[in-house]
Every structure is written in C-alpha cells, then in structure tokens.
Request: fold
Amino acid sequence: MFEQLVDGILWDIALVVFFVGIIWRIIDVLRRGKRQDLSVPRNSGVPGAIMANIRGFFPRREIAPRVRMKVIAGYMFHVGLLILLFFAAPHIKFIEEHITGFGWTAMPYWAFLVSAQVAFAGLILLWIHRLLHPVTQLISRRDDHIGAILVFLVMLTGCMALAEISSELRVFHRFTVELLMIYFPFSALMHAIMFVPSRAYSGAMFGRRGVDL
Amino acid sequence: MSTPLERGVETLKAQVDARVESYFSSCTGCGVCAEACLFYLESGDPRYTPIYKTEPLRKVWKNEHTVWGKLAAGMGLSKPITENDLSDWEELVYDGCSMCSRCSMVCPVGIDIAYLIRKVKEGLAAAGFVPEGLQIAGERALQFGSPMGLTEKSLRNAIAALEKEEGVSIPIDVEGAEYLCMLSSAEVVMYSEYITALSKIFSAAGISWTLSSKYFEATNTGVQKGDSGLARQLLERLVDVATELKIKTLISPECGHAYTTFRWDGPNILGREFPFKVVHILELLDQLRADGKLKISGSFDERLTYHDPCNICRRGGVLAQPRHLLNQFAPNFVEMDECGEMNWCCGGGGGVSSNERAEPLRLKVFDIKKRQLDALNVSTLVTSCSNCRTMLEEGLEHNEMEDIEVIGLTELLADHLE
Ligand code: SF4
Ligand code: SF4
Reply:
C-alpha cells in the first residue's frame, strides 16, 4: 500500500509541485520587473551579469582565508551530491524510465561510496558550523535546518537502499525524495536556482559601473 | 491617520522588488558576508552580520510574499514587526553600517546586501527611527541647502577670502560654463584647499567652469538617511540649478556618496535622465592627463598610500584614475594590502559620521585601517572624499598616529602642476 502510494500518486504530486513550484517562484521574481536604470552606463550590464555568475563560484582572494572551511565543505557537499544524483546507477535507470527515455554510463560502486562519503562529510561539517558559529546560529532559520535534515535523510536512505539492506529502504528513499521535492520550491533550498538571477542582478549593476563583482 | 510604525511597515512592503525577492530567496544563511564587514570583524558581535541588518525587510518579505508566511498570517501565527524591532535595527543599520558594500562583493549567491540595507533605512526613516544627528543634518540641508547649515552668504564669503588669500579666481554662477563644480560643505569650511586646487588646475588646463551660489552642496542627507523623498527634493534643486546655468558637465567633488548619488542613483531617484553629464573630479583630472592638458612637474617623494572611498571605487567604479594620477608624480606610492574594489571603509560612510552616538563604534572599527597603515609605514595618506578625510584624521588622532598627514588627491596634484 505504502509502496504503491510512493511509487504512484505521491511521485506524480511531487513531480508537479517541484516543477510548477520552481517555475512559479521564478515568475514571481520576474513579474515584479526591474525598473529601467536611467543612469548612463560605463559598460554594458550583460557581461557583468554573466561574469558574476561565473566568478561567484570562487571566493575572492581577500576573503578566501577566512571562509576556507565553508568553501571546502560547501564544494564537498554540492559536488558529491550532484555526482550521486546524476551518476549513481539506480538514478540513471530511474531517470531513463521515468523522465528522459535514455540513460548514460553509471559510475562504479567504489566511486559511489567515495562521492557519498564526501557529500556526507561536507553536509555534516556545514551543519555543525551552522549550529556552532555565533553568526550562523543567529541568522539560520527553521527552514535552513529542515532543508538540511531532509537532504541528510535522502542521502542516508539512498546509501542504505543502494547497499540493499532491505527492499523497504528503496521505498523509504523515494518517499524522502518526494518530501524534499515538495518542500524544495517553498524553502531556502531554492537558492540552488535563485542564485543565478541574484548574481545576474548584482553583476549587471556593478558591471554597468565598471566594477567586477 | 497611520501610526509611525504602520508607515514604516508600509514603506518596507513597498520596497520589495524583483531584486529583493530574488536576494531573499537565495540567501543560504552561510554567514560569509560577516567576514567582509568591518563592523562585525572589529566588534565580534554577530548582530553586525550584514544580512542580519536586513531582518525587518526580510520579515516583511516573508510575511507577505512566501507560502509559509502567508499561511502563518492566515492562521494568526506570524510575528509582525514591532517598534522594538525598529528601534533595535536603527542602531544596527545607522551606527553599525557605513554602506560600504564590501559584503555585497563576497556573497556566494550574489546578494547586494547594501542595496537591501538601503531599503531597510527607508522603512526606518518612514517610521521616524533615525539618529538625531542625521535627522538634524537633513533638516538643515532642506532649509539652508547644506547639512552643516552653510548659506549662500557663507559660501560667497569663503570664496572671496580664498581669492584674496590665494590669488586665484573662482567663478560663481557663470551661465554657459562647460563645467559646474559641486562642493561639499566640508570643502568650504575645512578643506578649502580643494577649491583653490580646482581653480589652479582648471586655469592651467584652460577649462571654463563655475560654482553655483544658489545650491552648491553635493552631499545628499536624504540618501544617507534612507529618505527618498528628501533625497529627491535635494537632488531636484541641484539638477534645476545645473539646467538653469546651461552647463555641459557636472563635476562631483571629493565626496563618495555624492558621486554615486549624482552619477548612478540620481537619474533613478528623479525618474529621468539628466540633461548634462556627470563625472567625478578624478575622472576629469585623469582625462585631462590623458589629453595632455595636465602638465605635472616635480615629484612628491614621501612614502604615501591611497585610501579608496567606498562609493567612489566599489560602488562608483573610479578605480584606475587615482592610480594613474598618483603614478605621475608620486614614485613612492604604495598600495594597502586590500585596496581598490575590496578596500576597507574609513568607518564613517552612510551617515555614520553625522551620528554622534556611533562615534565609539566608528573609532573601534578604524582599527582595520590602522593595521593597514601600520603595515605600510607611510607618512602621507591620500584620499578623494572629504568625509573619509575627516574620518581618517579623527581615526589617526584617536590612535596617536598624527604623524601621518591626510591630504586630498586634487590638492596634492595641484601642488605639482608645471
Ligand atoms: S553571504 Fe550571502 S548567502 Fe551567505 S548569509 Fe550573507 S547574504 Fe546570505
Ligand atoms: S555595507 Fe559595509 S558596513 Fe554595511 S554591512 Fe556591508 S560590509 Fe558591513
């Protein structure tokens, strides 16, 4: 019964909420529009917007030593997670069957284990930092913790499912993924999408003024 | 009749635009911005974390524009903004932020935090939560045209005295002049060498220029306060004066926020393009240099460094020009370890300098600049903003470092004309 629900209607709901929610959030930003900037630009804002999106992946030299731990843990988590998402054999099979109709080469099992460990280590480090550092303690909201817990559960159940400890774990993994997909568009997890317009807005503003963001 | 609190909240609501929506939707709460802020780093107080200073606006955004916020509001569970919130944030925003924008340069998701803080100020100002010093400066600016209360008469007296003492000619209200030089009151009262320098340079370069007696003040207390109505009024009359005088180019003086106000924000504040060009004085001087109209002689051999005013470099884009100019005559010019677009603020921008209550904190955060200067062992500190200049002088005095002389770049350049 639970398995049918998870593999059936709940998955459909999660998929719709995920995509419609994200599109709705993006439209919500864009529909507000941006007033035309009437100042005479020094440079075009477009390269600024593009470059800010590229440069944003690397911390500035002046700040790098102070944020090294956050950057390393952040990369460990995000890169590890993306590798797991797109190169773990069961995910490719699932995407092929349910979404794209085609698949690609999966990573070997040992690579899966390494990616999972790296992603877990990154997530846990970030979380500990969030809980212990006075700044992140002050600015973190319930939403940030719920998002982190959901991602943690998804990864944990995913690893256990792949290790085939029991067949229910696969169902439970899909269930946590569906919860995450439903939560995603309404949470701070949306940063995974919204960083693009944010960097673009700021990059264009600074770029028009001749400053590299 | 709405209460001040209601006015503040309504104003905050009106601030939510596409950028605000995108920015708050992107924040991961990573805390990286704190590591770029002089107020957090020097005080160690997490409340000075840049994004935390935007909390009233975030609260409004959350309550009004997110599913959870609307749900909570529908169930009567949302926490509305209170007078206490605004009172707490008044201190954080006006005392603990110099609007330097350094935080905006480091946010991994690209949030222009200073843009958000500026919007928080709008809400605070609408609710009447503004430090006394800034409030008074705003009233004076409106009444006299100058936040220091200088009148047309005081300007004319100061100019007459300069012409007599320095033997220079300073044109006033010349219709059809190519350039209109705006001033800050500090340049009339404390740093009149700047006006003398302008006269010497322009006469050597054969430039037609003028001051305006009617409204000469370039600084805009409305911008510092976060009161766009006041900002608009102050700006409008300057644009009118420039238009009446039929000048081609308005020169923004050695003042940081005046430059961003005229050059970048002004047309948007007024909702129309200006019928004249706006340049910072350093841009013009560098152009004159490039055109061969600025003949330099001799050299300034002291070891010196340049303090970038935040609104001129990071938010203004005038980065290369001061360096080109200094390299003409200062062989011992050395850079601070973090300079240009990642400079450290003097601590007094964004109206902090007009806010007496903030003085102890401002002097504390000056420690960053002190360490930068200690590392260089310079005898001269050059800058291009009269507000920075005062803050630097006060900071140096506070730290018993008066052996370092602070000087404006225009003035130093005028001393090395052929
Ligand atoms: S650095 Fe950017 S994303 Fe991180 S807490 Fe500050 S504003 Fe938010
Ligand atoms: S603008 Fe400058 S002073 Fe204000 S929060 Fe950002 S870094 Fe701190």
Remarks:
- Chain B touches chain A through 56 residues (CB under 8 Å).
